[in-house]
């Protein structure tokens, strides 16, 4: 038996996943000095299987961002391009985790994926990004952004490496009520082989870059010709509303989750108040001073959506879109076994271009990833070559029905 090289068990961990060693600052000035007194369940389980925590990685503040430019501790540059090329973003929000794997510093990194934060940086950096079914991995010790979406995910150089780590980390955790009690090996053993690949017709949008479209078609051809899979066009009409619904729902959840950052319980404190009203002043001055702009934007949007008079028209409408989309995807999976589509519509933008992008355009980066987060489905991004013009990496995503993560892993391996 060949023994594994010592470094193969080093793992980097995103700064919003609690580890006893290193900072758990979530990319936020608010938690700049925070260190966790405990390990997240996923970290604990990795350690029990011989993995070692090598690095904590930079990220968009509290997971909010698609480019890795919203951290209090500086931005992350994409290491997949040579030094002569114009610097590009690494993607976000698991920007540091993707960059250290792509740069070969560690074979594996943990990230979190609420709406694409593992898959987008994986695609931009030319590595594998694996978001499991919602609930497969415990969220205990993952700092909450939008709890009904948040998943721990894995960034790695191969699907096998990512899957090996998943298997060590999976399993019910009594400290996370949403963690699943599923026999994952039995799910795989009882499943029928993958035969049909679905292509969502609504995923062909005008923002899709021609090189990305070509690469998608080539992959489908390869699956049909080399692996004898049937390719079927399917329709998911609500796909078009997914992005708007996602940003409304996550902002609402974030406004609630982030209310704990007031300077009393965690992190930044600007001096103890002397009067009762002083607590309110302290609360607002801490939040004004230590939270970044993108986080404040989400909190304000979220509170607006949750306010009386807006709740029905925004929150409930978005919740209905989520339910409808989930239903449509369930129906699609009665016809096909997996879906294959691009992870992003285009390659990573240059850092300069990304800095000048309006927030709404940044949100649009997630157009292909958020639908499956809304439905809690497993989705794996695999590298699929480079853009002939910029030579920036491109990624394709394989999506499977809930709790059938192995199907996504199987087809992702065929595309590797
Ligand atoms: N870019 C998306 C957002 O800002 C996704 C982030 C994530 O998955 N953490 O919400």
From TrEMBL:
GO terms for cellular component: glutamyl-tRNA(Gln) amidotransferase complex; mitochondrion
Location of the Amidase domain: 11-406
Places the protein is found: Mitochondrion
Matches recorded under InterPro entries: Amidase, Amidase_CS, Amidase_dom, AS_sf, GatA
One Gene Ontology molecular-function label: glutaminyl-tRNA synthase (glutamine-hydrolyzing) activity
Active site feature: 14 (charge relay system), 93 (charge relay system), 117 (acyl-ester intermediate)
The enzyme's E.C. designation: 6.3.5.7
GO terms, biological process: glutaminyl-tRNAGln biosynthesis via transamidation; mitochondrial translation
Domain of life: Eukaryota
One Pfam family matching this protein: Amidase
Keyword annotations of the record: ATP-binding, Ligase, Mitochondrion, Nucleotide-binding, Protein biosynthesis
Reaction catalyzed: L-glutamyl-tRNA(Gln) + L-glutamine + ATP + H2O = L-glutaminyl-tRNA(Gln) + L-glutamate + ADP + phosphate + H(+)
Family the entry assigns: Belongs to the amidase family. GatA subfamily.
Assembly, per entry: Subunit of the heterotrimeric GatCAB amidotransferase (AdT) complex, composed of A, B and C subunits.
Annotated function: Allows the formation of correctly charged Gln-tRNA(Gln) through the transamidation of misacylated Glu-tRNA(Gln) in the mitochondria. The reaction takes place in the presence of glutamine and ATP through an activated gamma-phospho-Glu-tRNA(Gln).
PANTHER family noted in UniProt: GLUTAMYL-TRNA(GLN) AMIDOTRANSFERASE SUBUNIT A, MITOCHONDRIAL, TRANSAMIDASE
Protein name: Glutamyl-tRNA(Gln) amidotransferase subunit A, mitochondrial
């Amino acid at each position: 038996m060949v023994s594994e090289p010592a470094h193969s068990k080093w793992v980097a961990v995103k700064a919003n996943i609690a580890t006893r060693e290193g900072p758990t600052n979530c990319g936020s000035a608010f938690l700049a000095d925070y260190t966790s007194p405990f390990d997240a369940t996923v970290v604990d389980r990795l350690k029990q299987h011989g993995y070692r925590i090598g690095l904590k990685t930079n990220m968009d503040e509290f997971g909010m961002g698609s480019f890795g430019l919203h951290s209090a501790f500086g931005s992350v540059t994409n290491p997949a391009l040579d030094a002569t090329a114009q610097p590009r973003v690494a993607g976000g929000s698991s920007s540091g985790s993707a960059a250290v794997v792509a740069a070969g510093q560690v074979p594996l990194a943990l990230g979190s994926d609420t709406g694409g934060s593992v898959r987008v940086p994986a695609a931009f950096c030319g590595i594998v990004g694996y978001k499991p079914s919602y609930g497969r991995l415990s969220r205990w010790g993952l700092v909450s952004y939008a709890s009904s979406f948040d998943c721990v995910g894995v960034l790695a150089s191969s699907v096998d490496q990512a899957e090996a780590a998943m298997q060590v980390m999976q399993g019910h955790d009594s400290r996370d009520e949403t963690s699943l009690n599923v026999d994952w090996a039995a799910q795989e053993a009882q499943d029928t082989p993958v035969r049909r690949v679905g292509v969502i017709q609504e995923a062909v949008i005008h923002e899709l870059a021609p090189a990305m479209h070509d690469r998608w078609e080539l992959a489908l051809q390869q699956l049909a010709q080399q692996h004898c899979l049937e390719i079927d066009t399917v329709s998911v009409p609500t796909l078009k509303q997914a992005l708007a619904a996602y940003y409304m729902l996550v902002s609402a959840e974030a406004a609630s989750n982030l209310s704990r950052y007031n300077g009393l319980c965690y992190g930044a404190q600007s001096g103890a108040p002397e009067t009762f009203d002083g607590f309110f002043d302290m609360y607002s001055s801490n939040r004004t001073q230590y939270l970044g702009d993108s986080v404040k934007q989400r909190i304000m949007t979220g509170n607006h959506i949750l306010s009386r008079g807006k709740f029905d028209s925004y929150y409930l409408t978005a919740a209905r879109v989520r339910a409808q989309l989930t239903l449509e995807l369930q129906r699609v999976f009665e016809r096909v076994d997996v879906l294959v589509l691009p992870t992003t519509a285009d390659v990573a933008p240059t850092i300069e271009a990304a800095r000048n992008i309006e927030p709404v355009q940044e949100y649009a980066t997630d157009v292909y990833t958020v639908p499956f987060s809304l439905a809690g489905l497993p989705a794996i991004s695999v590298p699929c070559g480079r853009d002939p013009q910029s030579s920036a990496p491109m990624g394709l995503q394989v999506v499977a029905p809930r709790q059938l993560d192995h199907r996504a892993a199987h087809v992702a391996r065929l595309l590797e």
